[in-house]
Amino acid sequence: MININANMTGPLQSIQPGARTDSPGMPKVGSSDGKKADFAGTIKAAGNYISRVADDQQSSDMSIKDLLSGKNEDITSVVSAVAKADMSFKLLVGVRNKLIEAYKQTMNMPL
Amino acid sequence: MEVNNSFDPIDIAISGLRAQGRQMEVISSNVANARTSDAGKGEPYRRLEATFKSDGDLGGVKLDKIVTDMSDFLEVLDPGNPLADEEGYVAMPNVSLPIEMMNLNIATRMYQANIAVLKRYQQILETTLELLR
After folding, report:
1. Is B113's pLDDT higher than 90?
2. Is B89 in contact with B75 (CB distance < 8 Å)?
3. CA of A75, closest CA in chain B: separation in Å?
4. Of A22, A36, B45, B71, which one has the greatest count of Cβ atoms within 10 A?
5. Mind telling me how many Å the CA of A108 is from chain B's nearest CA?
6. How far apart are CA B90 and CA B79, in angstroms?
7. Does the predicted interface ipTM exceed a cut of 0.85?
8. Out of B7, B21, B129, whose CB is closest to A76?
């Protein structure tokens, strides 16, 4: 098994982030705690996000089951749970595709 | 204004759907009881009206309370009715069907507007996620 620890930000560290990256909501590159974001860390974060998406899916499943079994008769709560689950799943798929693409590109790099 | 939670617009739109659903409940009660001359309290059915209030500063809407319309009852001449008074008049609910129909139309349009917001928001989220492709 190849140990993937491609440090994505390492070589870029010398490039100082411009003033534009300080916009609100943007994570700071080269933050004060000295922690660098690496590929494995990103995969781990995606793993955490998967469990949150699974929670959303489960709650939407539960609300559909409750509606069909007559325990709950509020259709709007089902709609809300399904809309949230759908949205977070789409985000997860988008991030996963991008990560796999990045991995493939890195692995196909001629050395 | 920074959007902190991308689920917030969904929740707000859903709260609008719920509120309009309750409004329709009140309207259907009014229409169903438009000719109820005895509502169990010795008087005809009194028209109900739902009032709404906003839920927090940037939140959804919620049902405040359901108030009763204290306007006068309609007097109908019906001498054969056992509830008629000496002159033959029967008190009927203060429900006016044209007004209820108007309120029903408003509630329907409001419901559709909230659905439109929800749909449009889901659409723009999908467009945003397309940037990842």
Report:
1. yes
2. yes
3. 9
4. B45
5. 20
6. 8
7. no
8. B21
Beta bridge partners of B67: B49
Q: Name, in order, each residue with C-beta under 8 angstroms of B43's C-beta and a sequence gap of 6 or more.
A: B73, B91
Kindly indicate the confidence band of residue B17, based on its pLDDT and cuts at 50, 70 and 90.
Answer: very high
A69-109 pLDDT, tens digit each = 999 888 999 999 999 999 999 999 999 999 999 999 999 99
Find residues 3-22 of chain A whose CB sits inside 8 Å of chain B.
none
| pLDDT value at residue A25 | 64
Q: How many CB atoms lie within 10 A of CB B92?
A: 18
- Contact flag B132-A84 (C-beta cutoff 8 Å): no
pLDDT for A16: 46
Q: Which of B119, B111, B21 is nearest to A83 (CA)?
A: B119
Residue A76 to residue B17, Cβ atoms within 8 A? yes
Judged on CB neighbours under 10 Å (0-12, 13-18, 19+), B3 is: exposed
Nearest to A79 among B7, B14, B126 (CB): B14
Q: Do A49 and A95 touch, CB atoms closer than 8 A?
A: yes
Considering only CB atoms, B10 lies closest to which of A83, A90, A97, namely: A83
